[in-house]
């Protein structure tokens, strides 16, 4: 009996569960399938088209893809924001008309861009279009405050807000605005910088104004609240078009869910502390109890006895959040874009400044006169039209309603695109996307032809932004005070990439060049006597001329005479240009003549040194303009200079172009700074770190070789291929990215290298660059600024990843170590942001140029000398078989090491090493004066027949068969392709390993010979490289051993890869481990 009852009970419970699940499934499919299909059909029947509904996600994937594609790269400096911020609306208007139906998941959204329909919706006379219910992240950001609340609660909160922002209250906030702007301008003056990133500055400014005007505090006191709200805004921005399954968040939470809940609690706790502090401080000290500012009015309502006026603590906190966010984001955005327009259109900037000076002079703006700023109002309105802070408004259809001729079902969302409206050529003309403030010369009504819905940057109707006048006053005061003190233009480093987070903001900030208006200096100069001014000018010219002739004539003649008396000869000094004309002529002549396929690179790359050694001896004096250069090719003296025991030979000061390329990084720095950076670099390239980089080298080489499959039995230019390969390896190993991500940096650095090469022997009159700049100098400055900006973006991205916990610390690569040092609290270890950027540039350039050059020349030599190619391949196959190279076996590549060393001897990547004489010093038997440059030519040493024999120009790797010491007769200064002493190349092991890995993998797969189209023409562009590339013919290499492989000199039957393990299991004698052939094939 009991068993029967239990069975019946179980059947009943299971039946109930099944019914429950079926009902929920019916509800789910009704919501995500039947209801959308029904609405889509009904709307199409009325002529309302749109993109088709996709199950569950609606059109969000399409929208997300459109946005991702357009946001993946910056745009031209144009103001067509609809296509940038709402690409789906822009595209679908063209396809489906001014109004169309789209889908946010299963939620139908009617997108409206017709002014009359927008007016009907926003006026909301019969209450049919309430605010849309917003859930999840935006709700946590704004709560149920004035922006999102409905009904009686909204009415109550609106009355409070109107009281806070009425004319008299607004007038009382203007001193706080002025004080905040003054603090910002004082900071600009003290820092003395010309380029300022104003977007971040305005974020601080608007935060300060909100804190002072509404909460009687400061930005620093509320900084943690602003920081948390900013992080919450980022979460809202990146989840705009993500659709989740209903109810899933009760059981599974994403990282953003967890972080937003934590932030919500943190913001609430901070707000409660602000409220409590005000209650304690203000109680009994003010006539009305809590103060007359926004927080005071909210606290008064919170403590109200009348229940119809009283608000809850949650209402109070939500209103504070709303004001913090809305007052901060909208004004920051509007100020930023207005300043962008004035920086570009300096004619309008001048007109606005004239108006400000006419109304206020040099005094601070006053409330009564702000309304007279007609030109500024026109500019601000045009800026708000092109970059509206609120660019999308949403309403919900409360009940089935007739909108125009359209019957709209209940619960549908209506989206009103302000951007589409503001960019409509039918309203604003064909020049709608251009900045033309004169549109508003007759006021908003005339500009819009009395169409109230044609211009609504802050909304329309009863739900328009209550803080509109506060925001406009804030913008006008800030702009007026900036115009009183500065002229400004757009920086070349600015990258135009507007994005949508809460408002439209510049993704990479807005960089502006400021110039202070120092009128009192000009007036004082005008008041000075003409005679006094002329005398001063004459005296200055005389002093400049004396210094000039001392530098370009007297000093060179004195040094030349002194050196000749010690037996050091050389070509005669020529006024101003020294020997540069002769050097350029020699190089031009040698480059213009055809060259045989010989490996005598010395007379091709340095024809002047090659010729003058024959005329003047192993060491001689030459002139780079008025700068004396002592050329040293004797190994004994080279060793003394590069070992530099008494530190008399520091690095020479780099030319201006090279300084822009490498900055003050490891290659150029001196003293304690160099020591600090060298330690960092040593840490990056020690044995353990280098071992961890080999997988990245292998994967990069595999990508290249996969690309080469399309060139089998064809010609390929390996120089270009190796530039991409080395760039990819640097990106992966040092920066945790890829070549494509950093391609624009490599391109700019390559362009800078070509500028350096083209200006190596150009001499300019000292100081002329202050007044007259060449096109190369202008381009170099622009490139330097853009490169810096690109590295700053990389830096911010990595810092954000570290903050979000996506990586361990700042990462274990070179970039991570630099960032760790940048953030180090120990000042002895800390580096500046300039140091960080300079080290990045040094590694990008040094790591790419030297290795791609070495690889290219080694492949050229192996393509010519196929006997050595076969020897190298046999060694690789003996050690690795068809496996990828391993760290432990790379060191065993003896033949390859011989080949690479001989290639580095014949085609040294570093063709000249420059040092400066710190003080007068005895070098051998010569007394060398201070400030002279010492030039060491590795090419001259590496191709010296007294060291290497009469066959010095031939490719003979057997020279290195018994190691470097034997090959050089224990003379360390006879072979130094990567430098010598403490300043040798720190990445030498990295470069050699990279070369060996790449060559090994090429030899495993290909035979190659030199193409008949190859033209031998080595040139110097930072390193020695082939002017016309190196073209080889690739032939696939077919191993003769089939599946059997040689590993470490021993026969391994099947190999260590996946296929080898399967073969091993197939032949296993243990039946429990053995697999069949069928299993192996499957």
UniProtKB/TrEMBL annotation:
Cofactor(s) the record lists: heme
Transmembrane segment boundaries: 6-26
Residues at which heme binds: 465
InterPro entries: Cyt_P450 (IPR001128), Cyt_P450_CS (IPR017972), Cyt_P450_E_grp-I (IPR002401), Cyt_P450_sf (IPR036396), Cytochrome_P450_Monooxygen (IPR050665), EF_Hand_1_Ca_BS (IPR018247)
Any one Pfam family match given in the protein's UniProt record, by short name: p450
Membrane topology category: Single-pass membrane protein
Domain of life according to the entry: Eukaryota
Alphabetized SUPFAM superfamilies for the sequence: Cytochrome P450
Gene3D superfamilies: Cytochrome P450
A GO CC term assigned to this protein in UniProt: membrane
Broad class of where this protein is predominantly found: membrane
MF annotations from Gene Ontology: heme binding; iron ion binding; monooxygenase activity; oxidoreductase activity, acting on paired donors, with incorporation or reduction of molecular oxygen
Keywords: Heme, Iron, Membrane, Metal-binding, Monooxygenase, Oxidoreductase, Transmembrane, Transmembrane helix
UniProt subcellular location: Membrane
Similarity comment text for this entry: Belongs to the cytochrome P450 family.
Name this protein carries in UniProt: Cytochrome P450 CYP749A22-like
Organism: Salix viminalis (Common osier)
């Amino acid at each position: 009996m009991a068993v029967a009852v239990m069975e019946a009970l179980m059947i009943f419970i299971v039946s109930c569960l099944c019914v429950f699940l079926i009902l929920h499934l019916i509800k789910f499919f009704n919501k995500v399938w039947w209801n959308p299909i029904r609405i889509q059909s009904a709307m199409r029947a009325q002529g309302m088209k749109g993109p088709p509904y996709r199950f569950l996600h609606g059109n969000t994937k399409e929208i997300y893809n459109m946005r991702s594609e357009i946001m993946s790269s910056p745009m031209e400096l144009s103001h067509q924001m609809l296509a940038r911020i709402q690409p789906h609306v822009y595209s679908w208007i063209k396809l489906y008309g001014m109004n169309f139906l789209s889908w946010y998941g299963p939620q139908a959204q009617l997108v409206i861009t017709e002014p009359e329909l927008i007016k009907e919706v926003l006026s909301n006379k019969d209450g049919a279009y309430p605010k849309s219910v917003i859930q999840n992240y935006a709700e946590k950001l704004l709560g149920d405050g004035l922006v999102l609340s409905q009904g009686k609660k909204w009415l109550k909160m609106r009355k409070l807000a109107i009281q806070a922002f009425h004319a008299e209250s607004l007038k009382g906030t203007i001193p706080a605005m002025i004080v905040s702007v003054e603090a910002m301008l004082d900071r600009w003056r003290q820092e003395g910088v010309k380029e300022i990133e104003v977007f971040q500055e305005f974020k601080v400014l608007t935060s300060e104004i909100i804190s002072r005007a509404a909460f009687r505090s400061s930005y620093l006191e509320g900084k943690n609240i602003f920081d948390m709200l900013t992080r919450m805004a980022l979460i809202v921005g990146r989840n705009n078009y993500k659709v989740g399954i209903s109810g899933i968040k009760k059981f599974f939470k994403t990282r953003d869910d967890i972080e937003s809940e934590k932030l919500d609690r943190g913001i609430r706790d901070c707000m409660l502390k602000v409220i409590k502090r005000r209650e304690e401080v203000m109680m009994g000290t003010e006539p009305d109890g809590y103060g007359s500012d926004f927080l005071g009015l909210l606290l008064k309502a919170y403590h109200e006895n009348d229940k119809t006026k009283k608000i809850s603590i949650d209402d109070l906190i939500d209103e504070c959040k709303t004001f913090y966010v809305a007052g901060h984001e909208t004004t920051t955005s509007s100020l930023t874009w207005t300043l962008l327009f004035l920086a570009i259109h300096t004619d309008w900037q001048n007109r606005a400044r004239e108006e400000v000076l006419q109304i206020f002079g040099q005094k601070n703006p006053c409330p009564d006169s702000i309304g007279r700023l007609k030109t500024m109002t026109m500019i601000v309105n045009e800026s708000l039209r092109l970059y509206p802070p609120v660019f999308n408004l949403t309403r919900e259809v409360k009940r089935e309603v007739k909108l125009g001729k359209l019957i709209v079902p209940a619960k549908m969302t209506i989206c009103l695109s302000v951007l589409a409206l503001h960019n409509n050529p039918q309203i604003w003309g064909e020049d709608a996307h251009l900045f033309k403030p004169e549109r508003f010369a007759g006021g908003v009504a005339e500009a819009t032809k009395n169409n109230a819905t044609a211009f609504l940057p802050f909304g329309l109707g009863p739900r328009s932004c209550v803080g509109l006048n506060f925001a406009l006053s804030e913008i006008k005061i800030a702009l007026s005070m900036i115009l009183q003190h500065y002229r400004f233009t757009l920086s070349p480093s600015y990258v135009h990439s507007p994005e949508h987070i809460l408002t439209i903001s510049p993704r990479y900030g807005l960089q502006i060049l400021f110039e202070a208006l120092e009128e009192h200096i000009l007036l004082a100069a005008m008041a000075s006597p003409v005679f006094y001014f002329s005398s001063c000018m004459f005296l200055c010219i005389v002093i400049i001329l004396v210094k000039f002739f001392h530098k370009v004539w007297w000093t060179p003649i004195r040094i030349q005479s002194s050196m000749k008396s010690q037996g050091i000869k050389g070509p005669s000094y020529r006024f101003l240009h020294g020997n540069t004309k002769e050097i350029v002529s020699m190089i031009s002549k040698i480059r213009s003549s055809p060259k045989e396929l010989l490996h005598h690179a010395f007379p091709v790359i340095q024809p002047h040194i090659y010729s003058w050694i024959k005329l003047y001896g192993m060491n001689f004096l030459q002139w780079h303009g008025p700068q004396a250069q002592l050329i040293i090719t004797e190994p004994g003296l080279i060793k003394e200079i590069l070992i530099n025991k008494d530190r008399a030979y520091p690095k020479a000061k780099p030319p201006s172009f090279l300084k822009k390329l490498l900055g003050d990084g490891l290659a150029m720095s001196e003293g304690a700074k160099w020591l600090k950076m060298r330690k960092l670099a040593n840490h990056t390239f020690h044995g353990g770190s280098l071992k961890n980089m080999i997988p990245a080298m292998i994967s990069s080489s595999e990508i290249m070789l996969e690309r080469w499959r399309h060139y089998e039995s064809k010609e390929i230019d390996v120089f270009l291929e190796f530039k991409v390969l080395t760039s990819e390896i640097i990106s992966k190993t040092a920066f945790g990215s890829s070549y494509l991500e950093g391609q624009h940096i490599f391109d700019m650095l390559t362009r800078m290298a070509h500028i350096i090469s083209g200006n190596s022997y150009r001499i300019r009159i000292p100081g002329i660059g202050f007044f007259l700049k060449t096109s190369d100098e202008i381009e170099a400055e622009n490139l330097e600024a853009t490169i810096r900006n690109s590295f700053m973006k990389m830096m911010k991205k990595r810092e954000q990843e570290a903050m979000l916990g996506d990586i361990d610390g700042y990462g274990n690569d070179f970039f991570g170590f630099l960032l760790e040092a940048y953030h180090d609290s120990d000042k002895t270890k800390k580096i500046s942001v300039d140091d960080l950027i300079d080290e990045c540039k040094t590694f990008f350039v040094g790591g790419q140029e030297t290795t791609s050059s070495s690889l290219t020349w080694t492949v050229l030599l192996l393509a010519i000398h196929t006997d050595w190619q076969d020897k190298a391949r046999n060694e690789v196959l003996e050690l690795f078989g068809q496996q990828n190279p391993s760290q432990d076996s790379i060191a065993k590549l003896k033949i390859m090491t011989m080949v690479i060393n001989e290639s580095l001897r014949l085609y040294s990547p570093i063709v000249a090493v420059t040092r400066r004489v710190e003080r007068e010093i005895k070098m051998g038997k010569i007394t060398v004066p201070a400030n002279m440059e010492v030039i060491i030519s590795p090419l001259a040493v590496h191709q010296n027949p007294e060291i290497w024999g009469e066959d010095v120009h031939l490719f003979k790797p057997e020279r290195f068969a018994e190691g470097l010491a034997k090959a050089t007769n224990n003379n360390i200064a006879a072979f130094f392709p990567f430098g010598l002493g403490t300043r040798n190349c720190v990445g030498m092991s990295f470069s050699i390993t990279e070369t060996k890995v790449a060559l090994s993998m090429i030899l495993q797969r290909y035979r190659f010979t030199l193409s008949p189209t190859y033209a031998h023409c080595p040139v110097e562009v930072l390193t020695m490289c082939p002017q016309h590339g190196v073209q080889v013919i690739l032939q696939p290499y077919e191993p003769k051993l089939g599946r059997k492989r040689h590993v470490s000199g021993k026969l391994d039957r099947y190999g260590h890869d996946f296929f080898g393990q399967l073969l091993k299991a197939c032949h296993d004698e243990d039946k429990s481990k053995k697999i069949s052939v069928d299993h192996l094939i499957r």
